[in-house]
Amino acid sequence: MQYSEKVMDHFAHPRNVGEIEDADGVGTVGNATCGDIMQMFLKIENDVIVDVKFKTFGCGAAIATSSMATELIKGHTVQEALELTNQAVVEALDGLPPIKIHCSVLAEEAVRAALADYYRKTGREIDFEVPEKDEEACHIIPEEE
Amino acid sequence: MEDRFVYADNAATTPVAPEVVAAMTPYLTEKWGNPSSMYSKGREARRGLDEARETAAGALGCAPNELYFTSGGTEADNWALKGGARFMRAKQGRTHVITSTIEHPAVLRSCEALAREGFRVSYVKVHENGIIDMDELGRLLDRNTAIVAVMLANNEIGTIQPIPEIAKLAHEAGALMFTDAVQAVGSIPVNVKELGVDMLSLSGHKLGAPKGIGALYMRRGLKIDKYIDGGGQERGMRSGTENLPYIAGLAEALRLAVSRLPDMERVRAMRDRLADYILNNIPHTIYNGDREHRLPGNLNISFEYIEGESLLLLLDMAGICISTGSACSSNSLEPSHVLLALGLPAEKAHGSMRVSLSHGNTEEDIDYIIEKLPGIVKRLRDMSPIYPGEDK
Q: What CATH number is given for A5-121 in this structure?
């Protein structure tokens, strides 16, 4: 298993680590049993994500995908952030080992969970899919190999 | 302290000792004959093979003709376990295999293969300290038990099992006793007669020989099925022209390891210094496995609220090689079965670090780990959404 240089860069120098105290949306996905938890904090003004921070418990790929996801949505509109796919995160990182693809899925879900929280707080109807909390399901098994 | 390279993963593999290279070289250069050839070039190689077998047997306390060279520990495990179980089934109709929950995959997967061909496999649990539950073993043993396979020392937590007692119980039930001693040989004294086992496996690259060589001890009089059919090498049990350079290397590595056993006290002291430092200075840490009954170089600690692969990668960037029982560093997405068997919850197994020291390590290595580790753990905890803070 080998990480790309981009993954190692984002792992060693993660962007946007931390918390936002008066965040407009906070989302947490994953669980400790499975070995990764991502927490995403959003500051939103006029439907634009003006600031984003994250905290992650997890492997190198979990940290790198969280970091990359924050970069991909920062300065973008809520609608654009909702369109972020795990595939986009993987491509931006120059790929991930198959067994680590689930980390990129978690990053996408963390963004969605934080946006859902923002929708709830602002009384908007959530018209997109929100990741369900599932303590049992740890693994998204890679299709290939 | 200046940046260093600290290799602290000797349970994974070890560098080949210069003495071992020196012992191998003649068989890669001038003494290249086939030990089975009758002319002088062959006889020269045969002498080398005989000497190597004698040296290796001497290091283990067995007779030379009780030792079979293999391609490594995994082959020896497969051979002993499958061969032993099938032998007892053919001979006495016994179809029950007993092993422990913390065995190496070479043993566990071999047991699963035996289960597929109709054997019933029982897994003895271990206590919280990683030592097997002797009472449960006693209950599981029956007149149908073909073989008991319990490792001498564990590869992850280094715990040393009471093999003489286990062997005694196995033999009282009429079963064979096999121990995987891959991690133990070279770290602690290993004498097959004192252990009382029928078979024992070992691997060269864990003790300063190259990868691709190991051995199986099989007690005289026991004749399980041969492992490889062919030209009749290894007394007909494991055919194929002998890998003489590597066999010579393994013999020298064994000789060297036995001569260096007293130095393991120094290794043990270094290990304990590191353990005490971590336990006293880094909060939220768990010492995995028994403190007394364990290999002198092994340390296994869980750091709560962080994940082991991240720890491994950051330590690597600092020049320190360790390993982890985290799921994310394996190809399985499951945390270490050994740590789970101790009753450790998955989230704590994910944050485990295994340090395995050997002769090559120095006090400066320990100083360097002590210098780098706390900052790296803190850095990952500061990034962790579940970390409650230092004094919680």
A: 3.90.1010.10
CB contact under 8 A, B305 and A57: yes
User: What dihedral angle (degrees, nearest 10) is formed by the CA atoms of B158, B171, B71, B264?
Assistant: 30
CA distance B206 to chain A (A): 23
Which residues, in sequence order, are bridge partners of residue B123? B99
Which residues touch B167 (CB under 8 Å, ≥6 apart)?
B148, B177, B179, B195, B196, B197, B198
**CB spacing of A57 vs B307 below 8 angstroms:** yes
Task: Identify whether residues B194 and B54 lie together within a single domain.
Answer: yes
Residue of chain A nearest B314, judged by CA positions: A12
Q: What tens digit of pLDDT does each residue of B106-143 get?
A: 999 999 999 999 999 999 999 999 999 999 999 999 99
C-alpha atoms less than 13 angstroms from C-alpha of B128 in its C-beta half-sphere: 4
Given a cut of 50, the residues of chain B with pLDDT beneath it are none
pLDDT band at residue A145 under the 50/70/90 scheme: very low
Interface of A with B in 65-94 (CB under 8 A): none
B368 belongs to a structural domain: yes
For A4-61, write each residue's pLDDT tens digit. 999 999 999 999 999 999 999 999 999 888 889 999 999 999 999 999 999 999 999 9
CB contact under 8 A, B347 and A17: no
Residues B34, B175, single domain; the answer is: yes
Angstrom distance (rounded) from CA B194 to CA A63:
50
Chain B residues whose CB is inside 8 A of the A140 CB are none
Task: Choose among B166, B137, B373: nearest CA to B278.
Answer: B373
